[in-house]
Amino acid sequence: MGTSDKSYKLRIRDLPEGERPREKLKKYGPASLKNYELMAVILGKGTRREGILELSKRIMSQYGDQAIFSRGDVDILQRVLNVSTVQACQVVAAFELGKRLFGRPTEVFLRSPEEVFEYAKDMTRLKKEHLRGLYLDTRNKLIRDEIIAIGTLNASLAHPREIFHPAIESRCAGIILVHNHPSGDPLPSKDDVELTRQIYEASKIMEIDILDHVIIGSQDYCSLKESTEIWPTSKKPVPIRN
Asked: Which distant-in-sequence residues (6+ apart) come within 8 Å of 135 by Cβ?
């Protein structure tokens, strides 16, 4: 066995075709990609030191919640992210185009289920269930928006570590979970309630508040905080789907 450092680096071509960022984008649309996967599509390729997945994960984990992306300064971005001039230009151009075409306010505050529904209304068009984590500071300002899982929600797919890891990275104060029902019916299932209960109990240990779990239907939503006994403040219990 050799003594040189040949640590394994995950490359795009090592992934199953259905898990590659570009293929996922084509098949499921941009909402199905995690933040680092979107960054990988923008950058296109990695460097000699880092593969594209490593590079993209590093950028989003270290700098994803910082203002350097919105400053539009190629030199600063190149130096801070340690990427090439071409890649820095790609990132700046992508963020600028996003602001011009679809620009949401630079600061998003989510203080009610209605505001969450308006913010995440784009999920109504998704054909598979997506679980998103909206990570907030102490003022309920959104500091991170992360796709956690894709597929029918259950305890194995949406493990607490997948939900709390971004929370720890971004040092958030609270989390709002959001997922869609492609059927269009926002009423929670038994699995939705049980999963939420597990995450809520885990949040007590982590000392990071789960503020709500909002289910998005085709034209309406259901707030589990308002409609189940998981939270002490529940107001109006709703039926549970079988």
From this structure: 142, 143, 144, 145, 146, 166, 167, 170, 172, 174, 175
Q: What domain range includes position 153?
A: 113-227
Are residues 87 and 17 part of one domain? yes
Residue 166 burial (10 A CB sphere; 0-12, 13-18, 19+)? buried
pTM of the shown model? 0.61
Q: pLDDT tens digits, residue range 69-111?
A: 766 788 888 888 888 899 889 888 887 777 777 765 668 999 9
Q: Which residues on neighbouring strands pair with residue 142, listed in sequence order?
A: 136
What is the spatial distance between Cα 219 and Cα 189, in angstroms, rounded to a whole number?
A: 18
Strand order in the sheet with 130-136: 142-150, 130-136, 174-180, 209-216, 221-223
Shared domain for 85 and 117, answered yes or no, is no
* CATH code for the domain in which residue 167 is found: 3.40.140.10
- CA–centroid distance for 104 within its chain: 16
Q: Show the tokens assigned to 34.
A: 């995690």
Distance separating the N- and C-terminal Cα atoms of the chain: 56
The residue with tokens 């098949």 is 27
From 68, 101, 134, give the residue that closes a domain.
Answer: 101
Q: Could you give the CA distance from residue 173 to residue 138 in angstroms, rounded to a whole number?
A: 5
Cα 209 to Cα 156: distance, rounded to the nearest angstrom: 21
